[in-house]
Model the fold of this input.
Amino acid sequence: MPSSISLEALEALDLDPAFALHRGGKLEVRSTVPVRNADDLALAYTPGVARVCSAIAEKPELAKDYTWISNVVAVVSDGTAVLGLGDIGPAAAMPVMEGKALLFKQFANVDAVPICLDCTDVDELVETVVRLAPSFGGINLEDISAPRCFEVEARLREILDIPVFHDDQHGTAIVALAALKNAARLTGRSLGDLRAVVAGAGASGIAVSRILLNAGIGDIAVADSKGVIHQGRDGLNPVKEALARDSNRADLRGSTEQALAGADVFIGLSGSTVSEEAIASMASGSIVFALSNPTPEVRPEIARKYAQVVATGRSDFPNQINNVLAFPGVFRGALDVRATTITENMKVAAAEALAGVVGDDDLSADCVIPSPFDERVAPAVIAAVSEQARVDGVARL
Done:
């Protein structure tokens, strides 16, 4: 029998403002049409609804115009890699997925439904999402552990003709690229001038590395718990093997800290720590993005002794690399043109638009990325993603 929680225990929990805010959940469903009388009821439900259903049965594409599908995203997780918490399961992951749905609505007026699945097998995850997909205009995958997340996303992208986006990978990558473009601009360089070291080869580390390679980074070395990934290293999974072929042109070996000697950029996505001595060994005018949460790989006050630009994943330090700067606008832009997928070029376009929000007058060591509450962010990302979808030939409108 499941255990019950007493009213007194709930009241005690509600003394914590976080629990009080979450009581009853953070979402609700509201009608968009009035049902004030029999005529309204006859149009919203039977018999009027039958005419719409029959039309959709004859021409299924009409569902995008006469249901909510074109403006709703499924936020799907199995709860195996929840930020800062790890494998906590589907029930415990629900507050995070509700929060994600709330941010979709708040920042880009995208309706989103949190769905936490009680399965972790790749085949089961893919099959379940495919069966749910007809009810949605897009799929946002969330907090699925690596390396399964790569296969789940790849297979869904191949099967479905709607946008599929793993935010832990690509949201982080878009915002990191935008911030790095502006940090390079501030220091008088381009991406092609930079040698970067990424600590962490999980979902976000791989995606950040991929988008930087696509955007023209000078060179990039990625390290996991066993050291720098390079061709010929034993024990690499297929994702890391592919990355080894495309990165680390300098053929660096050894640890993250060894690779940092003379590097221009450090991007931390590993949850590990990096010593002050390693940061001090970087090139002059270095850039440090210590993005692990809640504890950065190196404290910002230490990194600032040596780096010209420092960013973290936290809101209580300048230059927060926050995915909310990306995913609402990316999906809004893709949904607005009914894109069949989200291409790599659409992600880069989002990053360029996000970087462009920070003008020359605003750009500083403490401002290489805009605030999530900057009202220019979402419109800029939406416009860039929509236009690039048309250029890439994946837009249906």
